[in-house]
């Protein structure tokens, strides 16, 4: 156990600072006695870019690399703002961090717990994790446009899948599956169409499976997986999938498990070579920003993932328990961001 947690905070844009304010207070309340929390706030985000022209330069990356972990709210501005076009913030900040710090495991758990109202009538016992590859796929920025703006325009976005990248995330997913009661892993891909990448993913799953005889496996095409997310989500235990499929599936997972305001994630570098980064799955939600309507639970549960990662599993479990108690007691009366945060802290 470290006796000091040196945390970088990027609160970001929109509801980011609102939910991070609550989450950091929960972190302070949850840390074991004797562990000192040292925080450094970084101003990055769309707002900072529009004010200063700075997105994230290499010296900032170097500074961020020195922390034990990063807690991020959400970054991104109004999608209609011309000055932010081209994914300046999404690619230049968020993905730059995930790539520079080699966050190859994008961990996104989902569970339907008492008190949560799922849009599904009879979801069964839903408790699964998506292990989304975080550094490859169509996200790498390998593409381009020819004859831009003409009727003959061609726009390419190449999906990069390396044996090295696929194997390390698949191995991580098997390790997580082996540690769970049901020990089941589902590969989600589109190997009937994306045949080159699909063959690689399936072969790697089959090979790594021989090292984990206790883990059962199956395969679903991503389109069929979306059906089962709605008709039978209880069938899933651990899902391993590529960067883009994982992005889409985890918003769907959030929707069935009580809403995007509850969905947490960790961008993890399991080697420890760089700090891992924890953030809600949701974005900056410009439609509700500044109205204290955002649910901070996803940010609070991201703090639980962070605590687990930095070696405080008991504190993490306390945060999860406090959230679950709060969810169980939640009625239908809307509460403000601050009220939810305070209620969770009271239960800690
Ligand atoms: N990790 C990130 O920083 C991240 C993730 C996703 C999107 N984004 C960016 O955020 C901006 C907005 O994206 P979007 O609208 O597609 O997705 P979004 O997740 O911000 O919002 C989608 C919907 O969910 C609601 N919502 C989101 N979080 C909520 C919360 N905590 N409580 C209650 N409701 C919540 C919003 O009000 C909105 O109706 C874009 O610039 C996008 O690129 C950033
Ligand atoms: C904002 C965007 C780059 C990001 C992603 O696609 O990974 C977001 O949607 C997420 O799920 O974290
Ligand atoms: Mg997403």
From TrEMBL:
EC supergroup of this enzyme: oxidoreductase
Binding sites annotated in the UniProt record for NAD(+): 283-295
Cofactor or coenzyme needed: Mg(2+); Mn(2+)
Residues at the site labelled Important for catalysis: 139, 190
EC numbers: 1.1.1.85
Molecular-function GO terms, alphabetical: 3-isopropylmalate dehydrogenase activity; magnesium ion binding; NAD binding
Catalytic activity: (2R,3S)-3-isopropylmalate + NAD(+) = 4-methyl-2-oxopentanoate + CO2 + NADH
Binding locations of Mg(2+): 223, 247, 251
First-listed, main subcellular location of the protein, grouped into a coarse class: cytoplasm
One example of a Gene Ontology biological process annotation: L-leucine biosynthetic process
Residues the record lists as binding substrate: 98, 108, 132, 223
Database matches in SMART domains: Iso_dh
Assembly: Homodimer.
PANTHER family with a match to the protein in the record: D-MALATE DEHYDROGENASE [DECARBOXYLATING]
Role this protein plays: Catalyzes the oxidation of 3-carboxy-2-hydroxy-4-methylpentanoate (3-isopropylmalate) to 3-carboxy-4-methyl-2-oxopentanoate. The product decarboxylates to 4-methyl-2 oxopentanoate.
Protein name: 3-isopropylmalate dehydrogenase
């Amino acid at each position: 156990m470290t006796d000091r947690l040196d945390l970088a905070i990027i609160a970001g844009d929109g509801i980011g600072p609102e939910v991070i304010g609550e989450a950091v207070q929960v972190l302070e309340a949850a840390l074991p006695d004797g562990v000192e929390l040292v925080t450094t706030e970084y101003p990055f985000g769309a707002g900072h870019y529009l004010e200063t022209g700075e997105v994230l330069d290499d010296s900032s990356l170097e500074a961020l690399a020195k922390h034990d972990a990063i807690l991020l709210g959400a970054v991104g501005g109004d999608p209609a703002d011309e000055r932010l076009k081209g994914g300046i913030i999404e690619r230049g900040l968020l993905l730059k961090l995930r790539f520079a710090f080699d966050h190859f495991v994008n961990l996104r758990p989902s569970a339907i717990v008492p008190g949560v109202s799922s849009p599904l009538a009879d979801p069964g016992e839903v408790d699964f994790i998506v292990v989304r590859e975080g550094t490859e796929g169509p996200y790498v920025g390998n593409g381009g446009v020819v004859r831009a703006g003409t009727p003959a325009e061609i726009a390419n976005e190449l999906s990069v899948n390396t044996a090295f990248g696929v194997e390390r995330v698949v191995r991580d997913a098997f390790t997580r599956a082996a540690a769970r009661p049901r020990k089941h892993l589902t590969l989600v891909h589109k190997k009937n169409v994306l045949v080159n990448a699909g063959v690689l993913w399936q072969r790697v799953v089959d090979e790594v499976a021989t090292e984990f005889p206790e883990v059962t496996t199956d395969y679903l095409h991503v389109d069929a997986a979306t059906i089962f997310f709605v008709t039978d989500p209880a069938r899933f235990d651990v899902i391993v999938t590529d960067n883009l499929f994982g992005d889409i599936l985890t918003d769907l997972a959030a929707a069935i498990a009580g809403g995007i305001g509850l969905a947490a994630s960790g961008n993890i570098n399991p080697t420890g070579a760089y700090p891992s980064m924890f953030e809600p799955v949701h974005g900056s939600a410009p439609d509700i920003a500044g109205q204290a309507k955002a649910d901070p639970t996803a940010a609070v549960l991201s703090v639980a993932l962070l605590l687990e990662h930095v070696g405080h599993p008991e504190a993490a479990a306390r945060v999860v328990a406090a959230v679950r108690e709060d969810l169980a007691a939640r009625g239908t009366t809307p509460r403000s961001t601050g009220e939810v945060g305070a209620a969770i802290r009271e239960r800690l």
